Amino acid sequence: MQGTFTQLRLLLLASIAGVLGAASLTYVVDPLQLFRPSRLAAFYSDDTRVQNAGLIRSQSFDTAFMGTSLAIHFRQSDIDRALGVRSLKLAMTGSNSRQHSFVLEQAIDGGAKRVIWAMDDFIFVDAADIETDPYLSVDLYRGTAKGFASYLFSAAMAKESLFALLRSVPPLRAPLTRAAPYLPIKFALSDVDDIYALARDFDVASGYNAKRTLAAFTYITAPTRSSFLGEGYGYDAMVSHFERDAVGLITRHPDVTFDIYFPPYSILQFVAMRDASPATLKIVTGLTAHIARRLTQLPNVRLYDFRAIKTVTHDLNNYGDVIHHSPVIDAMVLRWLANGEYRVDRSKPTTSLDELKAQVEAYRVER
């Protein structure tokens, strides 16, 4: 019996030593760079909801760039070059206004004096409260004891730390760096500029073309799927979320400049609503009219509307589906922002929306 207790005690001590050893490894390597800039060659992850917490603490920036998947492929170097800033891209696929507002608040506390925000209408649908959001660790961003503990005692982070340590060994650095994208690790990107960006040799014409755009339009307007066009859309709730998450953030930070733009969806996004879910189209146009009127009255906001630029939005070769535009349009968006083009007039906040509504009404789909 005594021998059994001794073995159990040794097993318990070994387990504790293993857990503490893994936590110590994560603390020393610090793959997220929460405690200090990386002592080894830094690597980054496409898991932006986690990675952003480390970027805000480790990077030097004066401008935060926020959005959903429509803004995810922008490169920080392109933003910096076009706008003359030091940017931090914080875009998150499938994200909502609560997540945007929370992450931007952390970025502003971290030094951002300018925010560039791609504001999609669907970010204002109902979402989990930020304190209980299962996809975003608020404690990790806030740097609480709970957040640091979840980080240090994470088996996944211990694995990432071990791999980073192995990569720091000179003979292993090159082969492991090449192999990283194909291994079950998240921190595989050696350049912060590559976080969720398309490969530099990506074939734009194959990924973005009219055939793909029309196929997506056909898919989302099919009778069996058209109900999803309006899923989560409710005018009163979305206005409330906008006021809380966007207006609330902006008014709390009067010394920060907010460049907010409505992304250039293809015309087919609105035509799909017109044909298959007109109630949704009414909600979207009503919501964006409210947003335009509210934002143009705030002194630290510059609002841009890129949705009625026919040369872009009617050219279906610019899109991979009905909303996601190509890197060619990314560059145009940055140029428009740099030149102040398509800025919404404070005295006529719905002019561009009225033009879009006329285009949608007149448009006929050519298959």
Mean pLDDT: 92
The helix content is 40-55%
Q: Which blocks of ≥5 consecutive residues have pLDDT under 50?
A: none
What overall geometry do the principal axes of the alpha carbons give? elongated
Q: Biggest sheet, open or closed, and with what strands and sense?
A: 5 strands, parallel
Query: Whole-Å distance between the termini?
Result: 80 Å
Number of separate strands: 7
| Strands in their spatial order, largest beta sheet | 3-2-4-6-7
Q: Could you tell me the strand content as a percent range?
A: 5-15%
Structural class: alpha/beta
How many helical stretches? 16
Order of helices and strands: HEHEHEHEHHHHEHHHEHHEHHH
Radius of gyration: 23 Å
Helix and strand layout, with pairings?
Layout: H1 2-29, E1 44-45, H2 48-58, E2 63-66, H3 76-83, E3 87-89, H4 97-109, E4 114-118, H5 138-142, H6 145-152, H7 155-167, H8 170-179, E5 187-189, H9 204-207, H10 210-221, H11 235-252, E6 257-262, H12 267-276, H13 278-295, E7 301-305, H14 310-313, H15 327-339, H16 351-362
Parallel strand pairs: 2-3, 2-4, 4-6, 6-7
Antiparallel strand pairs: 1-5
Helix pairs in contact: 1-7, 3-15, 4-11, 10-12, 11-13, 12-13
Question: What can you tell me about this protein's structure?
Answer:
This protein has 367 residues and is α/β, with parallel strands linked by helices. Helices cover 51% and strands 8% of the residues. It contains 16 helices and seven strands. It has helices at residues 2-29, 48-58, 76-83, 97-109, 138-142, 145-152, 155-167, 170-179, 204-207, 210-221, 235-252, 267-276, 278-295, 310-313, 327-339, 351-362, and strands at residues 44-45, 63-66, 87-89, 114-118, 187-189, 257-262, 301-305. The strands form two sheets. It has a five-stranded parallel sheet with strand order 3-2-4-6-7, with helices on both faces. A two-stranded antiparallel sheet has the order 1-5. α1 packs across α7 (155-167), α3 (76-83) packs parallel to α15 and α4 (97-109) packs parallel to α11. It is elongated.
